[in-house]
Amino acid sequence: MNKKILSLFVLLVVVSGATKALASLTFSSAAITGDTASTIDVGAGNALSLQTTNGGNIITGSGNVGIGITPTNKLTVSGTSNFTGHVAMGTNALINSIQGTPYQSLLALDDTLSWSLDGAALTNYPNFDPAVNGLYLKGNLTWVTTPDTNNKNIISLEAGVFGVDNYGTGNITDLYGIESASYQEGTGSVTNLEGARTYTGNYEALTITNQAGVNSYIYNSKVGSTITNGYGLKITSVSSNSGTYTNTYGVYVGDMSIGTQTNYPFSFYASDANTYNYFAGNVGVGVTAPSQKFEVNGGVRLNTVTAKPTCDATVRGTFWSFQGGTGVKDTVEVCAKDVGDAYAWRTIY
C-alpha cells in the first residue's frame, strides 16, 4: 500500500483485564490509496472521531455513506437523525434568507426539486404503522415557541411560511400557496374528516386587538391587469357524492355567544355598506326549509332610523315605517306607482 503517514502512535492499555488500542493518526496532504475494502474497528463502546484543522473539509469522494446500514444513496441513515443546525436540500437552497429577509427555517428546499403525483407512483411519504391505540400521528409538525424569559418585541411570530411566487412567462392553470387534503380509504370509522383545522387561543390576562381563526387577503396590485373573480373565501360545490350526505352546509357557524360578551355577537357581519348580499335560493329566518324567497317564523320589524328615500322606480315596493313621538301616531308607507305612472309613498297606516 502506498500510504504516507507522518506519525502513528499506538498505545496498548490494559483496563480491567481488557486490552484496548488507542491510536492517533496524522496524515500529510498526500492521498492515501488502497486496492481493497478497508475497515477501521475501534472496538465495542469506543468512539471514532474525525476532525480537521484550519477549517478543512471531510470529503467522501464519489462513494456513498451509510450509518447503521449499507448505503444506497449518497447518505443513508438507519435510525433517528438529529440536526442542531439548518438543513438545505438542493443546490440552490437558501439558509436563513428568503428574498433578503432572514428566517429561522430549519429546512430549506431548492426550487428545482420536483416530484410526481400520479397515483401509485407516489411512494415517498411517511407511512405510520402504530403498534398501540390512542396515538396522535402528525406527518409534519412545526411548532415555534419563545421562552418566558424573553422580553423582546417581535413584529411577527409565525409557525410556518408557505408561498408560491411565479416569475415565468408560461401559463399556469392552478397556483396554490397551500393545498390540503384528507382522504379516508380504510374500513374504520372517522368522526371528523377535515381538510384543514386552525386554532387561536389566549391564556393570559391581557388585551388582544384582533383574533381570527382564518384571515384572508386578496389583492391586485398591477395596473392594467384584470382578475375576473376575486374571492375572499370560496367554497366550491360538492365535487363527488356517490354516497349520502344527511346534512350539507356551505357555511356552518357554531355557538358564538359563549362567555362574556360586551357587545352583540355576530355570526355574519358585512362592514362594507356599498356591497350586496345575494342568495339564489330561499332564505329562512327561524325556518329550516323556507318555501318562499324569504320566509320568517316570527315578526318582522321595520325600524327605519335613516332618512326616507325618494319614491321612484328603484325604490318601488319598499315599505317604510315611521315611529312618531309622544302624541304622534306611527305611520307605515309603501312606495308604489298609481295608474298615471306617478310614484309616491302611499300611507297604509
Task: Give a structural overview.
The protein has 349 residues and is an all-beta fold. It is built from no helices and eleven strands. The protein has a three-stranded antiparallel beta sheet, with no helix packed on it.
What topology does this entry show?
Elements: E1 5-15, E2 18-27, E3 65-67, E4 75-77, E5 87-89, E6 107-109, E7 283-285, E8 294-296, E9 319-322, E10 331-337, E11 343-347
Features:
349 residues, mainly beta, elongated, disordered N terminus
Strand order in the sheet with the most strands: 9-10-11
Secondary-structure element order, as H and E?
EEEEEEEEEEE
- Mean pLDDT over the full residue set: 79
Q: Beta fraction of the residues? A: 15-25%
Low-confidence stretches: 1-19, 96-104, 110-125
Radius of gyration: 35 Å
Instruction: Tally the helices.
Output: 0
- Topology, number of strands: 11
Determine the fraction of residues in helical runs and give it as a percent range: under 10%
Class by alpha and beta content:
mainly beta
